[in-house]
Amino acid sequence: MKILITGGAGFMGSTFIKYILKNHPDWQIVNLDKLTYAGNPENLKEVENCQNYEFVKGDIANRGDVEKAIGDGVDKIINYAAETHVDRSILEPDAFIKTDVFGTFTLLEAMRQHNVAQYIQISTDEVYGSIQNGLFTEASPFEPNSPYAASKASGDLLCRAYFKTYNLPIIVTHSCNFYGPNQYPEKLIPLFVTNLLEDKKVPVYGKGNQSREWIFTNDHCRAIELLAEKGQPGEVYNIGTGWCKENMEVTRFILAELGFGEEKIEFVKDRPGHDLRYALNSQKLKNLGWAHSLSWEEGMRRTISWYKENEDRWKKIKSGEYLEYYKRQYAERS
Ligand code: NAD
Ligand code: DAU
Q1: Is any atom of ligand 2 closer than 6 Å to the C-beta of 210?
Q2: Is ligand 1 within 6 A of the CB of residue 15?
Q3: What residues does each domain of the chain span?
């Protein structure tokens, strides 16, 4: 089995590649990644010399790069590649349209030319927008509220159209928020943990009463592995755990684990268009046999430990381009 994984140098893509190489040593992996600010070859150091792993530097929105990665053919394509950070999409949406919309389109066009047995689109619960009460099902309408969410929704709609029109074997997943070791330190959990390890404050947007559902990396890998085996073409699958937490609860947990009090919280101006609550009904995935494997707290402790033990990894990242981005973000919002 040969699989093209796109965006495999990012947080979740690299975690999935390492998971697959460990659990399916007979699978061949080709990783196509543009190496944007979020892509880091260090994430794959432990597997870079594996016989059944190949890295191709390239853009999913460039047909030549996609053809090079497909080579003589692949059995499956799993598309993790995307611009992923909501705040960046508010500052500079262009790259989101190019990668998340045109990049998805380019991969789907390549699918039309090659005999690929399965395509899995890694997408997000944000396409549904915000829900005050209850849960989003796979049939909930798309109501994206950020340029990021709209770009992912557009990619997902193209997937639907390519299944309906060309009968291509495409699956779309809508997952809740990932957390775990090695996430780029711009997202809530790694930003707050690393800020506290540097004895800085943590910037809570608005009142911190927004709620997100969380899934630990390994459990997301197991969900995609299951869908690669049992997922049905043309179907959409929500991927969630039911662990819905308000941002203040997440913040207080991190503060307590690292031995700090609420004096470390700085309430800052809210994110424009900020979604209040995401929550998924994931029964369809559970019906295939998936269940999460550890508690939210255990996942949080493992995550926090990783940042404590790997300062060399994230300290390098929290400089340069990263700091420039933060200066721009706060200048825009003040
Ligand atoms: P990430 O930002 O950590 O990594 C994205 C990767 O994609 C990077 O390696 C980057 O170099 C690569 N990339 C970006 N543009 C590219 C392009 N044009 N061509 C090739 N490669 C490109 O991402 P992540 O947080 O691991 O998310 C992975 C996927 O999961 C994304 O599709 C995202 O929308 C989706 N998702 C993320 C979350 C989350 O909580 N992070 C939740 C649900 C769904
Ligand atoms: O729901 C899935 C989505 O989760 C993915 O599709 C996105 O790629 C991923 O980035 C994530 O989006 P969120 O906006 O939910 O994640 P983020 O970590 O940016 O923010 C989580 C919550 O914390 C959100 O309500 C905003 C808030 N927040 C975030 C940051 C970075 C803060 O209060 N302060 C911060 O500094």
Answers
A1: yes
A2: no
A3: 2-179+214-239, 188-211+246-273+299-333
Strand ranges (DSSP E) for the chain? 2-6, 28-33, 53-57, 76-79, 118-124, 170-175, 177-179, 202-205, 211-216, 236-239, 244-246, 265-268
User: For residue 15, what pLDDT band results from cuts at 50, 70 and 90?
Assistant: very high
CATH 3.30.70.20 fits 2-179+214-239, yes or no: no
- Among 126, 156, 186, 213, the active-site one is 126
Q: Nearest 5 degrees, angle CA 102-CA 95-CA 62?
A: 45
Q: What is the 3-class SS of 277-297, one letter each residue?
A: ECCECCHHHHHCCCCCCCCHH
pLDDT tens by residue, 250-268: 999 999 999 999 999 999 9
Task: Please tell me the number of Cα atoms within 13 Å of 39 on its side-chain side.
Answer: 20
CATH class of the domain comprising 188-211+246-273+299-333: alpha beta
Q: Is the CB of 86 under 6 A from ligand 2?
A: yes
* CA 100 / ligand 1 centre spacing (Å): 9
d(CA 279, CA 270): 21
Distance 11 CA to ligand 2 centre (A): 14
Measured CA to CA, the distance from residue 164 to residue 161 in angstroms comes to: 5
Burial of 225 from C-beta contacts in 10 A (0-12 / 13-18 / 19+): middle
Q: Is residue 154 within 6 Å of ligand 2 at its C-beta? A: no
pLDDT exceeds cutoff 80 at 323: no
Task: Kindly indicate the confidence band of residue 330, based on its pLDDT and cuts at 50, 70 and 90.
Answer: confident
Q: Which of 33, 125, 213, 275 is catalytic?
A: 125
